[in-house]
Amino acid sequence: MAVSSPYLDFKDAKCKDCFKCLRECPVKAIRYENHQAKIIEQKCILCGHCTLVCPQNAKQVHSEADDVLKLLAGKDKVIASVAPSFVSSFGLQDFGIMQIALGKLGFAYAEETSVGAKVVTEEYAKLLATGEYRNFITSACPAVNHMIQLYYPKALKYLAPVASPMVAHARMLKKKFPDCKIVFIGPCIAKKREGKESGIIDAVLTFDELNRIFEQKNIDLGQIASFGDGKNTKANRAKFYPISRGIIKSFEAMPAGYEYVAVDGVKRCFEVLEDIDEFDGLFLELNCCEHACVGGPCRIEKKGGSLKANEEVRKYASREAAQSVEADADGVILTELHPRIKTEDRIPSERDIRAILAKTGKNSPEDELNCGACGYSTCRDKAIAVLNGYADIEMCLPYMRSRAESMSYEILQNSPNGIVLLDNDFRILDINTKAIKILGITEHDVKGANAFDCFECDDFIAALAKDTNVSKKKVFVNRTKKYMELSIVLLREHKVMFGVMKDITDSVEYDDKLNAIKMETLATTDEVIKKQMRVAQEIASLLGETTAETKVALLKLKETLQPRSSKEDDD
Fold it and tell me: What 8-state DSSP symbol labels residue 468?
């Protein structure tokens, strides 16, 4: 079960599905959930590389600044153990300045972690003198230690069973101040986990976090006057620890029988650890960060980069001093075992892997591009990650592009409407068969061709010139004698425009025929009406003459039949 890291925070809104952190993660300790990157705690070595490469700054180190400020506000004595790389991050050549600044924050005491590093080197010398180690790997870098415990168990027998300088120093401070609280300050993220697991360190601050606290409390290191301007500095070769070959330089006299080699950077460490059994008589100073601790992920960047940082540490560590640092480790347990750590990763069968590969169109080894775009080195690695729930099928970019292009092609070609896509230089980027038919284009393949050579572009020119979308209900195409309904949409961000053409020829011809029939019917109707009027008039005329004659006849008949009056009888 993948669990997100308590040491790295994520800003989900800024994660853009670019997979850069996964590509850069040396141990692939990143999973994707709902298109958001998450740390797989059980696989992560906390090298911090993902925090440096994320282009959106979506990953940041979980801050313990508030916890430290609460400790300082309490009643307990709080002591700071400061990594010697403070020299390059804060531009100091005098630890006294740092002691004063930390005192202003409320620390009761501050000491360089190099005091612990000195006794660690002495322990290394004792182990080397036994001659029991065929090869010897230093244990100062917690990220390397964790990496070996997780991924290179065959190298565990060579890993020095000695505490790191941070833990060794904390145990020494606890001996001197039994009731104190200890805060380690350095440029390393992996120290946060090591500090928590040590059971003796109460909090870990990065240099970034300390610098922000200084700013918050208005503490300016440049304005702090040091006591003696570094003249009270004590000699300690372990101050070389932060730079490459620093551990090797910390030996007063290097035990014979070994070749002393420094390797920095996770990938170079991989190369050595992968073939560790092939070597004999190697003393390996392994550092996860390139340029060792001065290249730590939480260093404070200065002009000159790692080269300048290396120079400043060498200058500081080489400074002559009248006295050597006292490192009282009597009664302090310096042993630290590094047991094997196993992940819960499922080891899938070949059948399961092939089934996942088939879902992305990889049905044979030849189909496996191993392009690394998803972040995994090979398609098989990505398939295994899918089976373990760390990756999605859709993370295969060539597959998704092929599928998108296939879907786009099918949609484009099967659209009932004509579609043409032009860039702002009027080159045809894409066009479907329906558009070719409507526009009467005779060339076989016109992609990339100039649109002016293929069809009339007046409406497209007008749309681009006026920087507005165009919609026309009826456009006549001279070449094909067709009518179309045209919509032109500008995609300004992409500097392209596309036209959608609906063939309305049949509809227009039907309307024309219908209008002709209507006109013919109207003409016929008008003629019939006129004819009817003439008939009616003729009938009316005939009816009028007949009525008059009838009236005369009837009156005559009435007079004949009407009885005569008595007067008439008397007459």
Answer: S
Q: Where does residue 245 fall: left (phi above 0), alpha (psi -120 to 50 degrees), or beta otherwise?
A: left
Contact 422, 470 (CB under 8 A): no
- Kind and range of the H or E run holding 414: helix 397-414
Q: 59: helix, coil or strand?
A: strand
* Residue of 190, 176, 200 lying closest to 39 (CA atoms): 190
- Is the separation of the CB atoms in 110 and 180 below 8 Å? no
Radius of gyration of the chain (CA): 46
pLDDT of residue 2: 43
Q: Which two tokens stand for residue 505?
A: 């020829």
The rounded distance, in Å, linking the Cα atoms of 368 and 294 is 40
Q: What pairs with residue 37 in β-bridges?
A: 32
Residue 332: name the closest of 532, 175, 120 by CA: 175
- List the structure tokens of 126: 């004792």
- Range list of β-strands (E), 95-202: 109-112, 136-137, 181-186
Q: Where are the strands (E) in 154-273, listed by range?
A: 181-186, 203-206, 259-264
Q: Which helix or strand (DSSP H or E) is residue 368 part of?
A: none
For residue 362 the two structure tokens come to: 């990889």
The series of mean pLDDT values per 10 residues for the chain, 571 residues long, is 66 76 91 84 92 84 95 96 96 93 97 97 96 96 97 97 98 96 97 96 97 96 68 84 97 93 96 96 97 95 93 91 82 96 91 92 89 89 92 83 72 87 93 92 88 93 94 93 94 91 90 80 75 75 66 64 54 48
Backbone phi and psi for residue 538, each to the nearest 5 degrees, phi listed first: -65, -45
Longest dimension (CA), the chain: 186
pLDDT of residue 16: 73
Distance CA 440, CA 449 (A): 15
> Tokens 């440049």 appear where?
222
Report how far residue 247's alpha carbon sits from residue 262's, in angstroms, rounded to the nearest whole number: 9
Beta bridge partners of 79: 109, 182
Enumerate the β-bridge partners of residue 366.
none
In whole angstroms, give the CA distance from residue 44 to residue 190.
10
Region for residue 133 given its phi and psi (left: phi exceeds 0; alpha: psi -120 to 50; beta: otherwise) = beta
Whole-angstrom distance, CA of residue 320 vs CA of residue 236: 10
Query: Sign of torsion, CA 325 331 333 335?
Result: positive
Calpha distance 9→30 (Å, rounded): 13
Beta bridge partners of 470: 488
In the DSSP assignment, the letter for residue 254 is P
Would you say 180 and 174 are in contact if contact means Cβ atoms under 8 Å apart?
yes
